[in-house]
Amino acid sequence: MGGFFIPCRKQRQHGRVLIYNCLASCSLRDCVGVVYGGYAKAEMKELETLREAHKASCVAYIRAFEKKQGIDFEFWIGQEVGGSASFGGEWCFTLLEIIHDIDTRQPKGLVLKWHSDCIEHAPKRIDYRSYCMGARFADLE
């Protein structure tokens, strides 16, 4: 098992030691902890907790969006949770568009109409937030 040389918080007693060797004589409060990919073990646990909370939040928004729009979630594009989501084989929305639709209580179907208008007028594009505030493709001409 590899390790990184990092200074122990008890430098006078231990000096620079391989951290997993130092852990044998230090409590986790005294040492930074075992380092994985640049993060201490305790930090890795915090990051995992954040990832799980992020995933749960994303799933909650997806479920609310499915229910509101009457369309079924299929997958995250590129398997990137929180990025762009595919629905019903016809629609693709970013999580930011989904959050905007839910949080601002846009009328049911407006996001689907916006999506259709974007396809019809490509390569021109109006972002969903602007569309919700009244911007239309006819205004661009």
What's a concise summary of this model?
The protein has two domains: about 5-35, no CATH class; about 45-140, no CATH class. About 45% of the residues lie in helices and about 15% in strands. The protein is built from six helices and seven strands; from the N terminus they run βαβαββαβββααα.
Write the layout of secondary structure elements.
Layout: E1 5-7, H1 11-14, E2 16-18, H2 19-22, E3 35-36, E4 39-40, H3 41-69, E5 73-76, E6 84-87, E7 91-94, H4 95-103, H5 110-120, H6 128-132
Antiparallel strand pairs: 1-2, 3-4, 5-6, 6-7
Structural features, described:
The protein has six helices and seven strands, in the order βαβαββαβββααα. β5 and β6 (84-87) form a beta hairpin. The protein has two domains: 5-37, no CATH class; 45-140, no CATH class. The protein is elongated and about 55 Å long. It is an alpha+beta fold and 141 residues long. The model is unreliable at 1-36 (pLDDT under 50).
Helix content: 40-55%
Q: What spatial order of strands do you see in the largest sheet? A: 5-6-7
In percent, how much strand structure appears in the residues? Answer: 15-25%
What are the secondary-structure elements, in order, as H or E? EHEHEEHEEEHHH
- In angstroms, what is the radius of gyration? 24 Å
Reported for the largest beta sheet, the result is: 3 strands, antiparallel
Shape: elongated
Number of helices: 6
How far the N terminus sits from the C terminus, by CA atoms, comes to: 64 Å
Count of individual beta strands:
7
List the uncertain runs: 1-36
Mean pLDDT comes to 81
Structural class: alpha+beta
The structural domain count equals 2
